[in-house]
Fold:
Amino acid sequence: MREATSEEHPWAVSGDAVLDALGVDLETGLSASEAVSRRSTYGRNVLRKTKTRSLAALFIDQFKSLIILLLAAAGGVSFAFGEWVEGLAVLAVIFINAALGFFTETQAVRSMESLRRLSRVDAIVRRDGQARTVPAEDLVPGDILILGAGDIVTADARLVRASKLRADESTLTGESVPVEKSVEAVDQDTPLAERPGVLFKGTSVSRGSAEAVVTATGMETELGRISSLVEEAEEEITPLEKRLEQLGRSLVWVTLLITAGVAVSGILRGRDVLLMIQTGVALAVAAIPEGLPVVATIALARGMLRMARRNALVNRLASVETLGATGVLCTDKTGTLTTNRMRVERLVLADGIVVLEDAEPQENGSGTGAPGARRAEDVRWDEETPAGEAMLAAVLCNNASLSTGEDEEWSGLGDPMEVALLEAGDAVGLIRSELVERMPEEKEEAFDSDTKRMATFHRTGDGFRVAVKGAPESVLAGCTKILSADGESGLSDEEKQRWLEENEKMAEGGLRILALARRRVDRTDVDPYEEMTLLGLVALYDPPRKDVGDAVRKCLRAGVRLIMVTGDQPATARNIARRVGLVPDGEPRVVRGRDLKPYDDMTDGEKEDLLPASIFARVSPAQKLDIIELHQRAGSVVAMTGDGVNDAPALKKADIGIAMGRRGTQVAREASDMVLRDDAFASIVVAIEQGRIIFRNIRVFVLYLLSCNVSEVLAVGTSSLANLPLPLLPLQILFLNLVTDVFPALALGMGEGDPSIMDRPPRPSGEPILPRSYWFRVATYGGVIAGTVLASIVVATRWLGLEGAPAVTVSFLTLALAQLWHVFNMRAARSGLCKNEITRNGFVWGALALCAGLLLVVLYIPLLADVLGLSPPGRAEWLVALGLSFIPLAVGQVLTAFGFLSFRD
Structure:
């Protein structure tokens, strides 16, 4: 193994070695001039700012759709042949769509800017022998940091001195409680979460004091490496974007083939070249569903607003649908499945268990179902009872404090475990401020990381009460007696072993265990840890959120596989997974980060072996990316939830990243596609349901739009090949596609959805918007509607003797009305003829009324009629158009009733 160096592995060498390597004295620090010199060498202590997408770039991106490009080509041809009105109309359509997309996409990912905000704090350093406050961005390697409880660590630093030091590294490593820090060196291969001798940029000091020498700043810190992962992580195109792009590509090729085929065949048959080019333009306009981008954008925006009302905020429109296709949901534990706030679950006394927090019964006998368990309300908590004595020790031997805010909820300051003990004491009437007023604290034996215990001396009459808490093995070693309801009695070695076994059982269940003891002495200069009386064990845990269990069950019922990915301990992860129902009964498999290879180094067999795993513990940010890639390569649409800095790269890499809005860091929120405003895991279930409904609605209106467009292509193409007058002009087709098609399609996109949609598995990741069976429906509906249009032009020219604009008006009106009635063909086969999801949709009736009004406007206002090449129809023309337009509706209803053309999703 290569020898550890202070530059590359400061945690693996002594603090003095790091000081020597950096050429700095602990007592004097750097000089001001040396700090300036080093800043020119190392740069400022900031995270690199990546180039963000400008507003201009966002606007340009709206024109990159193949459908838009083909539409622009058709507009260009119109201009080339002097058809200025048609060309301008096409351009108007393009810019309307671009404006809609632009105004809904302006909230792009700003994760790097958020990371930089973490650096905008001050730091206390020793320079020229004096403690000074300097901007954090001015720190350089070699600076001596002076830190105390509550301080933000502003650079990576090697500890040189540390007193009772604990650091909150949850946003970096996922560790749910503060970790103890010391000046000790460890092996250079020790994982990030287990390096006690270093402090990391972006974390905070929760207890104690320290002096440390800065070893890395800016992008060279662990936080900087994570920011690089965020920057380098490839942001996935959402499934909906992929499907729309695939559909657009297919339509482009189909359009070009049809247009070229009809134009060339007409020219070969001797028809006028200019006429055939105009016909080609008409076909191109007819084949392109101009309304598709507009309707998709608006439908997604409405879905986004609907989800916002349910506390799910979406940053990217196309992400609204993505959760509906999610097959794998990777979820963080701390702050996502759990509250990220310690609680006292129970006290284990000589006379049994006292439960303070309701919990599910566990294999180790925990929870309210344990034999002999009593609830807190059924127990006396005065000093004459074992329960009262145990809780009294927990409250007295404590350095935390509680206060109430404006919302009258407790807010704790100090170590989360000590805060939890104070909250538990307050719940049973043992309030520390009142207790220390009656029993003043005279002395404290501070927590020692070697012995892992703490003691406080409290004056009581002519003596002192010693309250002790700490690691069970350490406290039990000094106990000679035990307290029960019958008073104190001797504690044998066999009994101590039984208590240690109980401790191990609870620890295996993911609980944090402390032992509580007392001693009565006459003076304070005695060893508090001798001849103690054991009071019991107190078990703490970071509880699951109350609504997580139901949400997990709903996800599993919907076929969404849940995977816990956490930086916390394996036992804790396993316990939480059991409690929320994330894994089936039995011993769940936990994959440790140290056993997880980079994705590119895994064999096919190792990948197959990892796919079924549901719990990953002690993982790094880079490993989270590998886990996501593992499932993405296996064909799953992957969502990732998280709230910490360490989650940001994975949130960006996933098909959709979901961040917590309240507890989540700014970087996590900005790197994500969706933010849960209420931090409720249950909101994810709502988002999944809405995503599925939105995709179903999109599929319905795409079916509707394309069947309408196919009818136009068939009508124009067939009439050209059959030497019939063109039944539709390009500008008329454009009007229909943007009016009579768009508004009904938009109404379809606003449907409320099927209540049973969450009882089905997610869609296959590669399934297109329209599967093959739907193209048969598109062709059938399009053929029937085209047939009625061709029939109308024949009737108008041969039976009614019309020519030019009057004849085209009949076919135009027939097609417009047929497309309006066609919206009712989108009902499901299982629904009623007159009472179904379409007839109950108020937006559909509003769209029909609006389209009917617009048709009357363009028919009877001379200026608009002239622009579109129409004339006001008479009674006979109306009867022909109305009569023929109902034929597609009648045919569609008959076929739907027999299940041939029904929409089943």
Q: What stands out?
A: Residues 107-119, 359-371 have pLDDT under 50 and may be disordered. The chain is about 45% helix and 15% strand. The first helix runs from residue 15 to 22. The CA atoms of residues 12 and 305 lie 52 Å apart.
